[in-house]
UniProtKB/TrEMBL annotation, chain A:
The UniProt record lists the keyword DNA repair: no
Species name: Ureibacillus chungkukjangi
Name the record gives this protein: Multisubunit sodium/proton antiporter MrpF subunit
Family: Belongs to the CPA3 antiporters (TC 2.A.63) subunit F family.
GO CC, alphabetical: plasma membrane
Stored Pfam families: MrpF_PhaF (PF04066)
Domain of life: Bacteria
Automatic annotation (TrEMBL), chain B:
Residue runs in coiled coils: none
Pfam family, one: MbhE
NADH-Ubiquinone oxidoreductase (complex I) chain 5 N-terminal domain location: 65-112
Family listed: Belongs to the CPA3 antiporters (TC 2.A.63) subunit A family.
Protein name, as recorded: Multisubunit sodium/proton antiporter MrpA subunit
An MF annotation (GO) of this entry: antiporter activity
Taxonomic placement: Bacteria, Bacillati, Bacillota, Bacilli, Bacillales
TrEMBL record, chain F:
Record membrane topology: Multi-pass membrane protein
One Pfam entry name: MnhB
Na+/H+ antiporter MnhB subunit-related protein domain location: 7-131
One GO CC term on file: plasma membrane
Keywords noted in UniProt: Cell membrane, Membrane, Transmembrane, Transmembrane helix
Domain of life: Bacteria
Compartments (UniProt record): Cell membrane
InterPro entries reported in the protein's UniProt record: CPA3_antiporter_subunitB (IPR050622), MnhB (IPR007182)
Gene source species: Ureibacillus chungkukjangi
Keyword Transmembrane attributed: yes
Protein family: Belongs to the CPA3 antiporters (TC 2.A.63) subunit B family.
Biological classification of the source: Bacteria, Bacillati, Bacillota, Bacilli, Bacillales
Protein name: Multisubunit sodium/proton antiporter MrpB subunit
Transmembrane segments: 7-28, 34-53, 74-94, 114-136
Span of the signal peptide: none
Automatic annotation (TrEMBL), chain G:
Membrane topology qualifier: Multi-pass membrane protein
Transmembrane regions: 6-21, 28-47, 67-92
UniProt cross-references to Gene3D superfamilies, sorted A to Z: 1.10.287.3510
GO CC terms, sorted: plasma membrane
Family: Belongs to the CPA3 antiporters (TC 2.A.63) subunit C family.
InterPro entries in the record: CPA3_antiporter_subunitC, NUOK/Mnh_C1-like
Name listed for the protein in its UniProt record: Multisubunit sodium/proton antiporter MrpC subunit
Organism: Ureibacillus chungkukjangi
One Pfam family, short name: Oxidored_q2
Record carries keyword Protein biosynthesis: no
PANTHER family documented for this protein: ANTIPORTER SUBUNIT MNHC2-RELATED
Subcellular localization, as worded in the UniProt entry: Cell membrane
Keywords of this entry: Cell membrane, Membrane, Transmembrane, Transmembrane helix
Length: 94, 801, 160, 492, 136, 140, 112
């Protein structure tokens, strides 16, 4: 029963990801896509957590943290790209 | 070190020394130094004559590549002796002649170096018993000939002639090499003598005829037989001494040598008979026929050489009948053709050598070789005229010169062959004497042309202006020695026969008893035989035709310029270059898409082709692990995302979709219990995406693909085929469970390597070497990117090569 | 403030040494820490500053505030998403804060962003003016500004 | 002693890394890299001789016994190639010293060359397929950098194609590896061979083998050579020479290993396909060489012809054919390196690459011209130069095996080789020169030293074929009898 | 025992709630009119969803294995801190790259400050960029 | 109006510590749990890259004045050096050894040469990652 | 599951190949990225899926899922990253010097 619910939750997350994928593809603006990708990352975090429960393993908990970090870095990078076209500035003046 | 090997090596050593001492040697002196070599070699070789006449042979082996049976085995017998005497004898005369012929301003060290190189190579050819060594020297003669033809390489014609001769003779050489290899495959030996010893076993094998044909190709190209003769006239761009030496007396006779040498092997074959005889006769005719229309003296001599080589070749063909018939008193008669061939070989070298030197003198003194601009030189160049007269008479087959003797024997041989009832000679054999006779008529005509157009008639005024005079004595010595031989041989032919020709005959017919009368007595007069009438006919018809040449010369115009062999050769070369170029440029067009199409199509055709042909496909889905719903959903998400990637119109969308794929794969790594992978994939995917974004600053936005629908469709089909190939093979492979994986071993990682993370233990210990190298890969990439960005093309004067 | 924490750590370490186990245990250290807390609470007035755990309590409170905001704003978003015919008027308005220093401003901005219906879009160069996007500017602007005061106070409690 | 086996890989890597720290000291970089190459050449020679006395040597990295760990395996075949590769790289370095220029030298040129040679040596020596992939990548990454080194317009363009195609090729390699692992569940070459022999190379395994054929063909330039002409004509000369000498040879090595050791059991299918591919490669290469109007095109298509010719040896597959293939490999490495060095020098002195626009070079550079002439003859297989022995043995094998079509194409190709190179010689070296001896652009001494050394090696390999024979024969024997290799790895 | 069972159920329910919130917020990203309003959905509800899930996982491992996962706690904190930053940055980027507000938007106090001075200089450029990047 | 990155920079200052700590943790935990030199290096590298993104080349370079090319090279030296070390003990190339050693305060620890090897890996990854990002960002 | 993965891999390969066959440089590079995704999955699938526990001895007694493919993929991922990074830089350098990212225009016939 618990496992069924967990699997159901996974299905929900997949549905959410699918919806977000739609947003990634359709846009219309770049920030829309960036938000959607960020949210996909965040949803994957949840999905990994659930899989960890289902598989009853602690092996993926680092992945959760790392994915959090990466989604964050990614979003920063994207927003900088959208805003300035550059990700790493040459100097502080820009 | 025996003398034979020394004979081969000395010219090479000298050739190597010349460039070294070039600066120390006075230019006027160099020729004389070089002259010492052939003269002394010739003298040494003459000491062999008596012993070889007694039937002795000399053989020595020096190891070269014994692992593959390739060794220097020198073999000196009657046949080699004839040729080696010619090589050194004519060589001496030619070098002597060159000393006076070539100006001191020429790069003489090159000239003599090449000449010595050639001499050594040629001696190597005739002394080698080992097929591979023979081949080596054979090609070296082509190379040195190339260098000599291109001696005046600033002239375009020299370069063209050199290229043609090299291409044709080397091609023939390659064919010959294949023939040799086939002989080796059949006989298991590379020694010519051993092959001759095992002929019976070899001749039954399927490769025998191919080997025969291939060896003949080598001989025909080298000896300028029809239709390969076209290189020889162009080779006349070489300095005249070279023409005299290589392209009439020696190198072109290497093919003759080869045919003679291999007569004991292949001689019994009908293919051999007809090929050698037929091609010889055709060449004989074609050369003589074409010589008549030439206006350059050297060209006339070139075609004449072609023709004479054909004559010798056809004689060898006729003589091979004796091998087929085997020894009997009645068959011995047919060996006389071979005898005549060897005899004419020597005769030809004498008179043709003299004639070339004569042309050299004319060219040297008058400044032209064009018979249309020459005439009446008899009074200015009386000695030269003598040379020309005697040489031409001999060539035309008139007494009292050696050419008469061999020409008569030739006619005799052609006539006697018609009596045979093998090889379908009975039906077409009559053609042999007919063609021989017609060719001789033309020979007579061009001989007449040489003499009369150059020396008789009135002197052209523009020649007189130059105030020409007779050549220096030095230049006359060599041709006069040769002319002397022309006459001497006529009077003492049997000395030559007994000491030189007879031992050579037993080389060609090793199975025939030496006592047999294979060395017929040569008579200048032997009664009213058909050959005499043929000769008389030649002279009468020849004179007549020469007299009325204006009337029939038009027949040459029947051969359109477009279809001459030369034109065809040029056209084949040019068109193969052009076709190659257009084909190559069509597919090697620099378009990466096309390259990928070729690659993928090959991939599909070869891999899927094999896979399906071998019926390797199998699929048992029941063995699969179960699929959860969310996994199915994820698969759909990935398929959707990847398809969307194709249609993405903006690069950011595309990169994001790629990121989605990467993240989804990381999630699959989670599902499939691969934590390290998941971690790495996540980080790498993000970093890669960041890299894309960073690089996008310098790249353009995606534009819609401008490819046509058709291209898109075909690309799509190719892609689907590639994808399905991978899938189908994969389905077959996942059920392939014949072996246990070696990774079971790694499950003891804690005990073995002290790590509990198996994957990491593999990376850090079991397969640490991979990891070490992959770190190197990373470093290279990092440094490489740095280099790529920092090292930009210099603006101008970039000296890097 | 920080000195108090260090002292606490020192006390815990002292405790560890005093107990003198063959192998030092983490639990012993914790015990020492708790003992230290007690001693410090008694003594904190001698330092002339607040008891440092009080600050910790404030931080906890701030975090709870964060979570509460998160829950309520999520509720609002979900409600709006699930409302069939959504009638909202988004917009951008400014807010000038009295907070200073990067940590304070950041904390406020984050809190604001978690507040129902608002996202901080820009901070002025001087750092004291926020440009806030509101999901439904007519309805929530006032409530947002009202809760801002509350947040500022909570943050100040922690930082000063 | 077994640890010596890793020297040809690890020493160049370590040196390369050290040179990164010595970026500004160019003289020091030259000396160190040169000494390194000499050193590993000597080591490879010693190893080659050890193999003759002790048989196949192996080095199990980390002491993990095969098939579980990665190992280096040295038999005569691999060591001959390692030795040749190292020697010619040493000589090419001499050329580089005087030609490559300070700009490149400061941009880690020597480290990249050392990385390249490390990858090449690793590829020759490894006994593990996945490690082969990794070694390939080391080599490829270094080659990616080297091919683009300089950043000229055309160079970058061609490098890009080269890199992309190789990325896809590496992808195919991984696909093949995946299927290989999916079937035989092991990565050790000897173990693979053993397992394949156990089940008799069934259709699935043959398919996998064919996949490897495609993969290595892409690397070797067998049929799938499209990447080659463009990319081989753009980098600095010395890099071209190294590419021509090394890169395709590694692919050829891999092909020979794969189809003599791992998948030798279904030759009807595999060797027929290889034969067809080799034939087409030769024809295409010949057409390319004939079509070429500039020296680079002609030279690069000659590389393709060489590839086709060597692989005839594999397709034929008899012992003499393989012996010939090995001889020819050694020859081709040396001669192609020299050819590209010469061609690059022609461009340097004349500023032209179109054959017809050059003339009379031999008058100003006689030695240069004659060395070109020599290498031309060697490439055409004229005895007694290096190309002869291989050509003869491959021909012999083809006759033994009845592969007459391949024989004909192969031998005809040597005529085209001669013809195409002769065209350069006649048009560019011969003829009138417009530049006086005084005005000529001097050829650096280092370049001459490299030319002469390579020319000497060509002559020595040809004339001294016998002294190589024991090694080559041993190599071919091992290739013909995979059990020697397998036993050396898995038993003991 | 029962306590553990209950805790596990709590965990599972938390996960389920998280997943439902996630779907709803994803739906919000589809439905809401402009990027700014969508960012509300992303930064708030999604964060809540993930926090619920992680908390669920934390509770599960705690009750099931007696394992207190610092990593999960760190993960929760991390998401919690970074989500609003991400929302802020993206909105700012969107606005500065001139992604328009929804049509029915009310006041816009930022516009005048941000774009008044350099409108002539930057607008054309940015609009072109927009066109090329977002013509989907 | 100039962009005010105060929020981002403040948060990143805190977050980078978490990332770097995690990176070090992953590096050390590799032998028994997911992690290792690669991932550790990647995470550490990502942390540094995050700094570059948040600040700018000059600022970060002032505060971390390393030549990352040399860091990468050093990493390779370390990895190959640890591999070559075995040769001097007459063991096959790349042989790893490990010991259990009791430290005064830290207690018994598992020390292996693999750690040196992995440190090399990690340094290379960091060095390369940053070199790549820097080189591209510095391009004109 | 394996069959499903094979189908997914097939689709990814198809998409990757199609992209590699594009004229646009970025699409081609993305194509190689998709291809490498596919092959990583393929290697994993070839080791068998869900056949055992996470290959950590500290977490389970076994049987473990096949660890070797995981190690191989890790190596492959890193190499593919290195290559992709280089390729990207090469691509933009080419674009900047040649002024085109269209491979058909980069054929290189006109300027020689
Ligand atoms: Na790759
Ligand atoms: Na990737």
């Amino acid at each position: 029963m618990k496992e069924t619910i967990l699997l159901l939750a996974l299905v929900f997350f997949m549905v959410a990801i699918a919806l977000l994928l739609y947003r990634v593809i359709v846009g219309p603006s770049m920030p829309d896509r960036a938000i959607a990708l960020d949210t996909i990352g965040v949803n994957l975090i949840s999905a990994i957590a659930i899989v960890s429960i289902v598989l009853s393993t602690k092996a993926f908990l680092e992945a959760i943290l790392i994915l959090g970090i990466l989604a964050f870095i990614g979003t920063i990078a994207f927003s900088k790209y959208i805003e300035r076209g550059v990700i790493v500035d040459r100097n502080g003046d820009s | 070190m025996t003398i034979e090997i020394a004979i081969i090596l000395i010219p090479f050593i000298m050739a190597a020394l010349i460039p070294l001492f070039n600066r120390r040697l006075q230019k006027s002196f160099i020729g004389w130094v070089v002259l010492v070599i052939p003269v002394s070699l010739f003298l040494i070789l003459t000491t062999y004559i008596p012993r070889i006449a007694k039937g002795e042979t000399f053989s020595h082996t020096y190891w070269w590549i014994p692992s593959f049976n390739i060794n220097f085995t020198t073999y000196l017998d009657g046949l080699s002796l004839i040729f080696s005497l010619l090589i050194t004898g004519v060589g001496s005369l030619v070098i002597l002649y060159s000393i006076f012929y070539l100006s001191i301003k020429e790069s003489l060290h090159h000239f003599y170096c090449y000449l010595l190189l050639f001499m050594g190579a040629m001696l190597g050819v005739v002394f080698s018993d080992n097929l591979m060594v023979l081949y080596a020297f054979w090609e070296l003669t082509s190379v040195s000939s190339f260098l000599l033809i291109a001696f005046w390489h600033h002239r375009k014609a020299s370069r063209a002639g050199a290229r043609k001769s090299m291409t044709i003779t080397v091609s023939g050489g390659v064919a010959m090499l294949v023939g040799f290899l086939m002989l080796y495959a059949m006989s298991g030996t590379l020694s010519i003598r051993e092959i001759i010893g095992n002929v019976d076993e070899i001749s039954e094998q399927t490769l025998f005829i191919p080997a025969l044909v291939l060896v003949l190709l080598g001989a025909f190209t080298k000896s300028a037989q029809f239709p390969f003769h076209i290189w020889l006239p162009d080779a006349m761009e070489a300095p005249t001494p070279v023409s005299a030496y290589l392209h009439s007396a020696t190198m072109v006779k290497a093919g003759i040598y080869l045919v003679a040498r291999f007569t004991p092997v292949f001689g019994g074959e009908v293919v051999w008979f007809w090929a050698v005889t037929g091609v010889g006769l055709l060449t004989l005719f074609w050369g003589a026929f074409n010589a008549v229309r030439q206006s350059d003296l050297k060209a006339i001599l070139a075609f004449s050489t072609v023709s004479q080589l054909g004559l010798i070749m056809s004689l060898l063909g006729l003589g091979s009948v004796a091998v087929h018939l085997g020894y009997s008193t009645s068959s011995v008669i047919y060996t006389q053709a071979t005898f005549a061939a060897l005899f004419h070989l020597i005769n030809h070298s004498t008179f043709k050598g003299a004639l070339f030197m004569m042309v050299g003198i004319v060219d040297h003194e008058i400044g032209t070789r064009d018979i249309r601009r020459l005439g009446g030189l008899m009074s200015i160049l009386p000695f030269t005229f003598t040379i020309a007269l005697i040489g031409c008479f001999s060539m035309a087959g008139l007494p009292p010169f050696n050419g008469f003797l061999s020409k008569e024997m030739f006619f005799a041989a052609t006539v006697s062959i018609t009596n045979l009832d093998i090889f379908s000679i009975a039906s077409i054999g009559i053609l042999v004497p007919v063609i021989a006779w017609i060719a001789s008529v033309f020979t007579f005509i061009y001989c007449a042309i040489i003499v009369s157009k150059t020396f008789l008639g009135k002197i052209k005024p523009d020649i007189l202006e130059k105030n020409p005079h007779e050549a220096p004595v030095g230049m006359l010595i060599s041709p006069f020695i040769l002319i002397g031989l022309v006459i001497a041989i006529f009077f003492f032919p049997n000395t030559l026969g007994a000491y030189i020709l007879k031992p050579a005959m037993s080389s060609v017919y090793p199975t025939f008893p030496a006592t047999a009368e294979m060395t017929p007595h040569i008579y200048a007069w032997h009664g009213f035989k058909p050959e005499l009438f043929m000769t008389i006919g030649v002279i009468l018809v020849g004179l007549l035709l020469y007299r009325y040449m204006k009337h029939w010369i038009k027949i040459y115009r029947l051969f359109p310029q477009k279809w001459t062999l030369n034109a065809i050769y040029e056209r084949v070369i040019t068109s193969s270059e052009n076709i190659s170029e257009s084909i190559t440029n069509r597919y090697m067009n620099g378009n990466l898409m096309h390259y990928f199409i070729y690659i993928y199509v090959s991939f599909v055709v070869i891999v899927a082709g094999t896979f399906l042909t071998l019926e390797a496909f199998s699929w048992t889905p029941s063995l699969d692990a179960p699929v959860e719903n969310y996994e199915l959903l994820l698969v759909f998400i990935m398929i959707f995302a990847s398809c969307a990637l194709i249609f993405a119109k903006s690069r950011i969308t595309a990169v994001l979709l790629n990121g989605v794929l990467g993240y989804a794969i990381a999630f699959f790594f989670v599902i499939f219990r691969a934590p390290d992978l998941a971690l790495t994939q996540l980080v790498v995917e993000s970093v890669t995406t960041a890299l894309y974004l960073i690089c996008f600053k310098y790249l353009a936005e995606l534009k819609p693909e401008k490819t046509s629908k058709r291209v898109k469709l075909s690309n799509g089909i190719i892609s689907i085929l590639v994808g399905s190939t991978v899938t189908l093979i994969g389905l077959a492979v996942i059920n392939y469970e014949k072996f246990e994986s070696i990774s079971v071993y790694f499950e003891d990682s804690y005990k073995l390597a002290g790590g509990k993370n198996i994957v990491n233990t593999i990376l850090g210990d079991f397969r640490a070497f991979d990891t070490m190298l992959e770190v190197v890969v990373l470093l290279i990439a990092g440094l490489g990117i740095y280099t790529l960005i920092k090292l930009k093309a210099a603006k101008k004067g970039d000296a890097d090569t | 403030m920080f000195a108090q924490f260090l002292l606490n750590l020192f006390l815990a370490l002292l405790w560890l040494l005093l107990v003198d186990e063959p192998v030092p245990q983490l639990t012993t250290f914790f015990t020492g820490f708790v003992v230290g807390i007690g001693i410090l609470y008694v003594m904190h007035r001698f330092f002339g500053t607040q008891f440092y755990l009080r600050r910790v309590m404030k931080i906890l409170y701030l975090m709870l505030l964060f979570i509460k905001e998160l829950l309520s704003s999520s509720y609002l978003v979900i409600k709006q998403v699930l409302t069939p015919n959504l009638q909202i008027t988004p917009g951008i308005f400014t807010y000038k804060t009295s907070l200073q220093g990067e940590w304070e401003i950041t904390a406020l901005a984050l809190l604001l962003t978690l507040t129902p219906g608002s996202v901080v879009m820009e901070v002025s160069e001087s750092g004291d003016v926020f440009y806030i996007h509101a999901m439904d500017i007519e309805e929530s602007k006032e409530s947002i500004i009202r809760s801002m005061g509350k947040f500022e106070k909570a943050i100040l409690e922690v930082t000063r | 002693m077994n640890n010596l086996l890793v020297v040809p890989l690890i020493i160049p890597i370590i040196t390369a890394v050290l040179l990164v720290f010595l970026r500004e000291q160019i003289m020091l970089q030259r000396i160190i890299s040169f000494i390194t190459m000499i050193f590993i050449s000597i080591i490879s020679f010693l190893l080659l001789n050890f193999v003759q006395t002790d048989g196949i040597i192996r080095l199990d990295f980390g002491g993990w016994i095969p098939p579980f760990g990665i190992l280096f395996v040295a038999d005569s075949f691999s060591l001959l190639l390692v030795l040749t590769a190292n020697v010619l790289t040493t000589i090419c370095l001499l050329y580089a010293f005087s030609t490559i220029g300070e700009r490149h030298e400061k941009m880690f040129f020597y480290p990249f060359v050392l990385f390249l040679i490390a990858g090449v040596n690793g590829s020759f020596l490894t006994g593990d397929v996945f490690n082969l992939f990794v070694c390939f990548e080391v080599m490829l990454l270094a080659s990616y950098v080297l091919v683009a080194l300089g950043g000229k317009k055309r160079q970058l363009r061609e490098s890009l194609k080269y890199v992309i195609i190789n990325v896809v090729a590496s992808w195919m390699f991984l696909i093949a590896l995946a299927f290989l692992y999916g079937t035989v569940k092991t990565l050790n070459m000897a173990h693979i061979a053993q397992r394949v022999a156990e089940v008799g190379q069934d259709p699935v395994l043959t398919t996998v083998a064919i996949l490897f054929l495609i993969v290595f063909s892409l690397k070797a330039g067998l049929l799938l050579f499209f990447w080659l002409p463009g990319s081989y004509s753009v980098p600095p000369t010395v890099v071209q020479a190294l590419f021509a000498a090394l890169l395709t040879k590694v692919g050829i090595y891999a092909l020979i290993r794969t189809f003599t050791l791992m998948f030798p059991l279904n030759q009807d299918v595999t060797h027929t396909i290889i034969g067809v591919m080799a034939g087409i490669t030769l024809i295409a290469g010949c057409m390319g060489a004939l079509s070429g109007r500039d020296i680079y095109t002609i030279a690069t298509y000659n590389v393709i012809i060489g590839v086709g010719f060597i692989l005839i040896g594999l397709a034929v597959g008899t012992e003499s054919a393989l012996t010939g293939a090995i001889y020819y490999l050694i020859h081709d490495m040396l001669a192609k390196a020299l050819l590209f060095l010469l061609v690059g020098m022609m461009f340097y002195v004349s500023g032209e690459s179109v054959v017809k626009k050059m003339s009379g070079l031999i008058q100003n550079y006689p030695l240069f011209g004659w060395i070109y002439f020599l290498v031309m003859l060697a490439l055409a297989g004229i005895p007694p130069l290096s190309g002869f022995m291989g050509k003869v043995l491959i021909g012999q094998g083809a006759i033994e095996n009845g592969s007459y079509v391949l024989l004909a194409i192969g031998f005809a190709s040597s005529i085209i080789v001669l013809y195409s190179l002769l065209r350069i010689f006649l048009a560019s070296f011969y003829g009138e020169t417009t530049i006086s001896y005084e005005d000529r652009k001097p050829i650096p001494r280092g370049a001459y030293v490299a030319f002469v050394l390579l020319a000497l090696s060509i002559v020595c390999v040809g004339v001294g074929a016998e002294s190589l024979a024991i090694y080559v024969k041993d190599a071919a024997k091992t290739l013909m009898n995979p059990s020697i290799y397998i036993d050396a790895i898995l038993k003991g | 025992m029962i306590a553990m069972e209950i805790l596990e159920w709590v965990a599972v329910i938390l996960v389920l709630i998280g997943s439902i919130i996630s779907v709803i917020s994803a739906f919000g990203l589809i439905k809401l009119p402009d990027v700014y309003t969508r960012s509300h959905a992303a930064t708030k509800s999604s964060t809540l969803a993930v926090m619920a899930c992680l908390l669920g996982a934390f509770i599960y491992f705690w009750s099931h294995d007696g394992y207190v996962s610092i990593r999960l706690i760190l993960g929760i904190i991390f998401v919690f801190i970074t989500a609003p930053v991400a929302g802020h940055l993206i909105c700012r980027a969107a606005y500065r790259s001139r992604v328009p507000l929804a049509r029915n938007s009310g006041q816009d106090e930022l516009k005048s400050i941000l774009f008044d001075g350099d409108i002539a200089a930057t607008t054309v450029q940015t609009i072109e960029k927009e066109k090329s990047e977002e013509n989907q | 109006m100039k962009i005010n990155d105060v929020i981002l920079r403040t948060v990143v200052k805190g977050v980078v510590f978490i990332i770097l700590t995690l990176g070090v943790y992953l590096f050390f935990s590799g032998h028994n749990a997911p992690g290792g030199g690669f991932i550790g290096g990647l995470v550490l590298g990502s942390g540094i890259v995050l700094l570059y993104i948040t600040y700018d080349l000059e600022t970060v370079h002032r505060k971390m004045p390393f030549d990352f090319k040399k860091v990468a090279a050093l990493g390779v030296l370390l990895a190959t050096g640890s591999a070559i070390g075995a040769i001097f003990f007459d063991a096959p190339f790349l042989s790893q050894t490990d010991i259990y050693y009791t430290f005064p305060i830290l207690g018994e620890k598992h020390l292996t040469t693999v750690t040196i090897f992995e440190a090399g890996v990690a340094l290379t990854v960091i060095g390369t990652l940053v070199t790549i990002i820097l080189s591209i960002s510095e391009d004109e | 599951m394996e069959s499903l993965m094979m189908i997914l891999i097939g689709v990814l390969v198809t998409v990757g190949t199609y992209l590699v066959l594009s004229r646009n440089l970025i699409r081609v590079i993305l194509g190689t990225a998709v291809l490498s995704h596919a092959v990583h999955l393929l290697i994993l699938t070839m080791g068998g899926l869900k056949k055992g526990a996470v290959p950590l001895l500290s977490q389970s007694e076994g049987p473990f899922t096949d660890a070797l493919p995981q190690a191989l993929i890790l190596t492959a991922i890193v190499i593919s990253f290195a290559t992709t990074a280089f390729l990207l830089v090469l691509a933009y350098r080419t674009y900047k010097t040649n002024g085109s990212d269209d491979l058909q225009e980069l054929r290189g016939m006109s300027d020689e």
